[in-house]
Write a structure and sequence with these properties.
alpha+beta, binds zinc ion, 4 helices, three-stranded mixed β-sheet, about 130 residues, Cytochrome c oxidase subunit 5B, mitochondrial
Length: about 130
């Protein structure tokens, strides 16, 4: 009886007598989150985050969020240099333990070689997402 009174006090419209000495909660309006569980990132993302998630779903990487690919640096498999312009300054650490960086410009349309180690670099146009 005390539990029924408590329910009536807390949920005055929801408690409906059911059986002897019991109360059943009447259906109330249900929010989407409680019915379908916790929404996913795609369902609740908005704005820039939503655009990034949609691009990642298509396999694109507009904000360079993925780990960069490794290239051999040969003529057939040059290092890819993404750029929004026609040229980009590149620094080559020729050997793993080098403390100096060799800087040179890579221009659109032609492969460039590092003057010290000979690695090949190729400029590829990169479109900014916005
Ligand atoms: Zn080099």
């Amino acid at each position: 009886m005390a539990a029924r009174l408590l329910l009536l006090r807390v949920f005055p419209r929801a408690a409906v007598p059911f059986g002897r000495g019991r109360a059943r909660l009447a259906p109330t309006s249900v929010r989407a989150m409680s019915a379908g569980g916790i929404p996913t990132d795609e369902e609740q993302a908005t704005g820039l985050e939503r655009r990034a998630l949609q691009a990642m779903k298509r396999g694109e990487d507009p904000y360079s969020m993925f780990k960069p690919k490794r290239y051999a640096g040969t003529k057939d498999d040059p290092h890819i240099v993404p750029s929004i312009g026609d040229k980009r300054l590149v620094g080559c650490i020729c050997e793993e333990d080098n403390s100096t960086i060799i800087w040179f410009w890579v221009h659109k349309g032609e492969n460039h070689r590092c003057p010290q180690c000979g690695s090949h670099y190729k400029l590829v146009h990169h479109e900014l997402p916005h």
